[in-house]
Amino acid sequence: MSNSPLTPGVVAARLPAGAYADNFSDVQPVFDRHEARVAADRCYFCHDAPCMTACPTSIDIPLFIRQIATGTPDAAAKTIFAQNILGGMCARVCPTEQLCEEVCVREVAEGKPVEIGRLQRFATDTLMGKGVHPFTRAAATGKKVAVVGAGPAGLACAHRLALKGHEVTVFERRAKPGGLNEYGIATYKTPENFAAREVEWLLKIGGITVKTGVELGRDVTLDQLQAEYDAVFLGVGLAGVNALRASGEDLAGVRNAVDFIAELRQSDKPAVAVGRDVVVIGGGMTAVDAAVQSKLLGANSVTMVYRRGKDKMSASEYEQDHATQSGVRIIYGAAPVKVLGTSAVEGVEFAYTHDGPNGLEMGETFTLKADQVFKAIGQTLTAAPIAKDGAKLVKQQGKIWAGGDCAAGGEDLTVTAVAEGRDAAEAIHASLMA
Amino acid sequence: MANLTTNFIGIKSPNPFWLASAPPTDKEVNVRRAFEAGWGGVVWKTLGAEGPPVVNVNGPRYGAIYGADRRLLGLNNIELITDRPLEVNLREIKSVKRDYKDRAMIISLMVPCDEDSWRDILGHLEDTEADGVELNFGCPHGMAERGMGGAVGQVPEYIEMVTRWCKKHTRMPVIVKLTPNITDIRKPAEAAKRGGADAVSLINTINSITSVNLDSFAPEPTIDGKGTHGGYCGPAVKPIALNMVAEIARSRETHGLPISGIGGITTWRDAAEFMALGAGNVQVCTAAMTYGFKIVQEMISGLSEYMDEKGMTNTSELVGRAVPNVTDWQFLNLNYVTKAHISQDDCIKCGRCYAACEDTSHQAIAMSPDRTFTVKDDECVACNLCVNVCPVENCITMIELPKGAVDERTGRPVTGYANWTSHPNNPTATAAE
Asked: Which of A99, B80, B269, B396 has the least C-beta neighbours within 10 A?
C-alpha cells in the first residue's frame, strides 16, 4: 500500500483494498422476515394516522404495515407504489426521522417510533426482488408528453402518465437516468446499483422512452418540445452550485460536494482521490454525505463547518449523529472568510458567527488546515425556461408543468419530488383528457 | 411476607400453584425440575388402565394462536393420556413424592366406565403415597371417542356414578375435573357433588380447531393431510374458565364445593382472580409450556406482594372474596352512570378511541384538527370500548357521576340503586315496595 490516511495532498487508495467494500456497504440492511414482523407488530393502526399526513406522498402507512404483519408484503408494496413509485429509494433516503417517524405516536409515547422506513424497504424490496411490476397501463390515449429530467420528479411523472395510457419521452442530459438518485446520494444509502435497477423496474410499465445525453437548451429547445408534444413536464433539478463568495475559492483542491458525490457513485472507490485534511462547508444532507464519505475513503481528518447553530442545520439529528459517529467533527456557528494557499488550498480561515441586528455577524477568526475543501452550501437553478416564482419555476404555465427541486414550493427531498411529479402527471392527464 | 401455604381439601402445599395434568407432569424428570423451581404441587399426567399404553400421533400435537410479537395466546393439543407403562409412572410418582413430602402429589386418572376398571386403578395407587386423585372427565379429543374423558364429563349421571365408585374404592380425596364442552357447567358440578367428590377442578380444554392451512386445506396441527379437533387452552380461555368457576361458586347447589381453578392462568394476577372467584388453589399448564417452570417464582412473589398490600396473611382470606359480587344482569344498578374521560397528558393521539367510537359505537368522541380527542358527555353511554382499545393503560378512565349530577345524555339526574326487575320498561316488573 503506497498511500495511507496520513499521505499529504489529494490522493486515491488511502485504505487497504479490502476496506472499501465494508465502508460503502448498506448503512442499514433490509429487515429479514422475522425482523419485519416484529417491527410491524408495533404499529397501532392509528386513525387518520399522523405518519400518513407527514408523508409528502401520503402513503397509507398503517395499511401497508398491517399488510406486512399479516404476511402479505407484496400487497404492502402495492399500497406503497400506488402513491410513490420510487418507494424503494425513498425507503432508503427519506429523512424519516423528520417525516413519518417523527410524528409516529410511539415516538411521542416512548421515543421509539415504528420503523416505518425500514418496513417500507422490506415491502418494496420483497416485491421488486421478484422482478414484478405491479401496474398495467390503461389503453393508449394517443397523447404524447415530454418529460425533461430523469430524476425522481421526472420518473414519477413519466410513470403516472404512462400508467394513464399516454406516450412519454424522457430527456436526460446525463449519461444515465435517475437524477440525484443516481448521482447525488451517498453510496452507502443505495449500494448495489439500486438506483439503476429501480429505474429499469419502473420502466417495465411500458410506454416510456428515455433519451439520455440530451440537454434542454443545448440539444433541444422548449419550443420544439411544445410543438412536438401535447404537454411538457420540467423536472430539471438544480444544476448550479452556490459559490462561497470567499477569496481563494478557485484554488486547486476546492470542489463542489455534489461533483465529489457523483464521482463516488460512478467510480471504483479506491480510485477516488480525497484529501488528508478535508473541510466541508455547509449544513445539509449533501454536506453530510460528502463529509462521511471522505472519512470512509480514508481522509485523516474531516471537519464540517456550518455557519449557524445545530438547531438550524437542515441535515437531521440522525444525519448529524451518523456523521459524528463516522469520525466527522462538526463545527457550528462559523462561516468561511477566505480560502488559504498559493497554488493549492492549504487551509480555510473561518469566523465565528452570532446573530446581530442585521443578520449573521462575524466575530473571532480561526484557521483549519485543509488540502481539500468541499462546497455544499446549496444548489441553484441554472436555466429558466419558463417563468419563475422567486428563485424557482412556476408549477404550471400553458402546456408546461414543473416539479421537483427546480419548482417553487416544497422541500428539496426525493419524496417531495416524487409527489410533485406524480401530481403534475395527474394534472396533465386531466388537462389532456378534458 | 404473606403465608402462601394452602390447605386444599386436606392436601397441603407450600403455595397454591399446582401444575395441571399435562405433558409437564408426565415424567419424574419434569416433576422434579418443577418442584425445584418452586411449584406447590402437581397433578401427574393422566394414567390409564393396566396393559398396553395408549399411543400418540407421531406428527404435530399442538396448534397455536398468537397475539402481537408472536405471543402465544392459545394452544390446542391432540395428545392423549400418558403413553408410558402404568408401572413406570407409579414407580416414579412414589420416588418423587418420597423426596418432596411437602408438595402436593395428585394423580389424574382415566379408565373405561366400569366399576372394576376404577377399582383396579385405584388399587394400584395405594403404594405411591400420593395425596389425592383427579378424575379426568374432560379431555375432548381421542379418548372421548373411546367413551372416556369428555364423553363421561358430558353426562352428569356418569360423573356421579364414577365419582361414587372412586369414593368407595379409595381413601384419598377425589377431585373431579370438569369439561367446559357443555351448556351449563353447574350440572356436572352438581353431579360430582352428589357422587361425593371432595372438589371439582375446571376447566379442562375446549374443543377447537386453531387454524386451517391455506395451502393444504387441512386443519392444524396437520397429520398427513388431515387434522382433528383438539383441546384449547392458554390465556385465550381464561375468561371462559373464570365464568364457569364463578357459576359453581355462586350457585346455591354447589356453593362451598372446593374448586381447583384452571384455564389460562399465566401470571400471579390471573391466579388471584381465580381464587377471588372461589378457587382454593389453581392449576397451570400452558404458561409453563410457553415459558418454562421458572414462571412460578413470579407467581409466588406477585401473590405475596398483593396479599401484603391487602393485609391478607393467608390465601383463605382471598378465596371467594369476589363471589358475592357476581350477580345476574337483572340485578345490576341501572342508575349507575359513568362517562369516559381521556387524560390529555397521557394521550398519544393515535385516534383508536375515535375510530372505535365513531365507526362502531356511539359517536361520542370528538377529534379536533390538532388531534385532541375529547369525550362528548351528551353522547357517551360509557360502553368502555375506548378504554379497551386505547394502547395506553389508564389514559382513558370511567368517571362515576355522583348522585344528583345530571347525565347530559339523558338529561336526568343520577338517582339511587334500581335494577331491571323494577324498571318500567320491564313487562314483568314488580313494583318496589
From this structure: B269
